[in-house]
Design brief:
By secondary structure, this protein is an alpha+beta fold. It has 7 helices and 11 strands.
Length: 283
Amino acid sequence: MPFSTETLGALSAAYPHMPRQLTHEIASHPLLELDALAALARRLRPESIEFNAATDLPLGIAYEETPYTGLDVHETIAQIDSCGSWVLLKTIDQDPAYAQLMRDVLSAIEPVVEPRTGEMMRLEGFIFISSPQAVTPLHFDPEYNIMFQALGKKTMTVFPAADPDMIGDPFFEQYFNGGPRNLPWQPEWEERGQPITVTPGEAIYVPILSPHWVKVHDEVSVSLSLTWRSEWSFHHADACRFNSRLRQIGLRPSSPRIYPADNRLKSYSQRALARAERMLKRG
């Protein structure tokens, strides 16, 4: 069992709106050791791997501005203690052993999640391998997320979900039409953040749409992030796309509503228009 009864109770008290520090039982799992992760990187498809420099980065750096170290991913993992880098292994469920680990962990929280936000959809797993002092710049994720710390120590600073100053409608509309997820940074936002520090055996629940940034401490870090979507999250995304259409014709649409309010009308309108456009292209 990856969680204690007390941890499930803590998640239940926070879900879905509030970040929460949790504990877990998978820190020593052999699949999360560096040698196993190096082997996984050799098995994954190239598009499932990201890596770049990760120290001395400004919090608001755009993804495309992140410098490259000159190392390939295998060299980066081998030298992770000294190369000042960050490696992300994505869609780890393409590997059967990691798919099973992901299912085992997420199935344990279904009794907490599904009564609140419904079926857990589009389950995904990501592993972060980071050098000491590595920084993940300010960004948001369109999923619900639990980040499990397996090696080293890091601090995640989490900001209120969909804070209109930090992550307003124009950003959401751009992102859900294929734009970047990194956010600009303003120093005055610092006081709005909640820093949460985790060590092996600890985890952080990160609410959907909550901006956050991460700083690794003085040792190599390994973290496993497991994410899921809900029907509400897909409706929110489509409502953002629909609002973008309205803005393009000069209208000023109201913001998509935050859970538990739904966005079905705009979402279904967007889906109908997108379907009609696809049919016209085929014709």
